[in-house]
């Protein structure tokens, strides 16, 4: 009969921290895709670029239009005061 020694690897504290941070990164990148709103995580950007330029350009133009609208509203508010 042969007895076999089973080696167990103990993880260090820094490895546990790395596992936790990796899990948080994955969760934070997947959550915008699970909700019904427009997410802007790294994974969402990569998927948008891979789908085609129309998706990417639409998001950029929407963002720029919203920024322009916000700037106009802020200017009107400052002029009233």
Top keywords for this entry?
mainly alpha, 81 residues
Largest sheet: none
How many domain units? 1
Question: Which radius of gyration do the C-alpha atoms yield?
Answer: 24 Å
Tally of DSSP β-strands: 0
Indicate the overall shape: elongated
- How large a portion of the residues is in β-strands, by DSSP E? under 5%
Which oligomeric form is depicted? single chain
Q: Report helical residue fraction.
A: over 70%
- Tell me, rounded to a whole number, the average pLDDT: 76
Structure description:
The chain is mainly alpha-helical. The chain has one domain (13-80). The chain is built from three helices and no strands. The chain has helices at 13-34, 42-51, 53-80. Helix 2 (42-51) crosses helix 3 (53-80). The longest helix is centred in the C-terminal third of the chain and has 28 residues, at 53-80.
């Amino acid at each position: 009969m042969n007895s076999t020694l089973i080696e167990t690897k103990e993880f260090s504290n820094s490895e546990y921290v790395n596992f936790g941070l990796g899990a948080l990164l994955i969760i934070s990148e997947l959550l915008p895709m699970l909700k019904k709103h427009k997410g802007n995580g790294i994974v969402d950007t990569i998927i948008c670029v891979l789908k085609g330029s129309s998706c990417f350009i639409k998001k950029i133009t929407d963002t720029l239009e919203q920024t322009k609208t916000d700037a106009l509203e802020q200017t009107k508010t400052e002029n009233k005061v």
